[in-house]
């Protein structure tokens, strides 16, 4: 059972390309983490300032470890967050009683 995080970002006007470039670097580094199963960056087709991240980890502890990495601290906290108007996180665990 994996642990999923969905982050919704709204960039400041004109900062979407800068944020996407930073997230490309972030995604590459995050995919190398031992507990990371997926790190995907999506951009809204109608509103380029709306960005969605889909992150999947083996477990919640792996996500916690991810947030402590130097690349998260430097890129997300240090560079991306100051370029956002808003940020929402949805942390999800699978529901075993509901199967596909």
Estimated structural class: alpha+beta
Total E-strand runs: 4
Radius of gyration: 14 Å
**Helix content percent band:** 25-40%
How many DSSP H or I helices?
A: 3
Explain what the structure shows.
The protein has helices at 16-31, 60-67, 70-80, and strands at residues 3-11, 36-43, 50-57, 84-92. The protein is α+β, with helices and mostly antiparallel strands and 100 residues long. The chain has a single domain (3-92), classed as 2-Layer Sandwich (Alpha-Beta Plaits), CATH 3.30.70.100. The protein has a four-stranded antiparallel beta sheet with strand order 2-3-1-4. Strand 2 and strand 3 form a beta hairpin. Helix 1 (16-31) packs antiparallel against helix 3 (70-80). The relative contact order is 0.30. The mean pLDDT is 96.
List the keywords.
100 residues, alpha+beta, 34% strand, four-stranded antiparallel sheet, Alpha-Beta Plaits, 4 strands
């Amino acid at each position: 059972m994996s642990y999923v995080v969905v982050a919704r970002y709204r960039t400041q006007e004109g900062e979407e390309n800068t944020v996407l470039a930073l997230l490309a670097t972030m995604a590459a580094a995050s995919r190398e983490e031992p507990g990371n199963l997926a790190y995907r960056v999506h951009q809204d087709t109608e509103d380029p300032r709306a960005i969605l991240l889909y992150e999947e980890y083996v477990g919640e502890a792996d996500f916690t470890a991810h947030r402590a990495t130097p690349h998260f601290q430097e890129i997300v906290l240090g560079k991306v967050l100051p370029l956002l108007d808003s940020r929402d996180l949805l942390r999800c665990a699978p529901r075993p009683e509901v199967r596909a």
